[in-house]
């Protein structure tokens, strides 16, 4: 069983070949692929975390689609002063499918 832990969108995600992950918005290259930086590689019983060994490892994912996250409502309220503020936010996201770990 081969899997890797990659750095994507400010977080670390555990990925295998064929897994689908949702990360912060990433622009794909011309051919629709994205290279992800590995932090850890597990190949059977062998665990690789050395920076020199991980420099040779490539994790490739293909771009599936862009989407937006759920709406988050931010409300601020101060009692007895009449201060109310309401703001909304939706994060821009990208869905990727991992194609190879080499």
Automatic annotation (TrEMBL):
The keyword Amino-acid biosynthesis does not apply. PROSITE patterns: RIBOSOMAL_L21 (PS01169). One of its GO terms (cellular component) is cytoplasm. GO terms for molecular function: rRNA binding; structural constituent of ribosome. SUPFAM superfamilies: L21p-like. The keyword rRNA-binding applies. One of its GO terms (biological process) is translation. Keywords: Ribonucleoprotein, Ribosomal protein, RNA-binding, rRNA-binding. It comes from the Bacteria. Belongs to the bacterial ribosomal protein bL21 family. This protein binds to 23S rRNA in the presence of protein L20. Part of the 50S ribosomal subunit. Contacts protein L20. This is Large ribosomal subunit protein bL21. The gene is rplU.
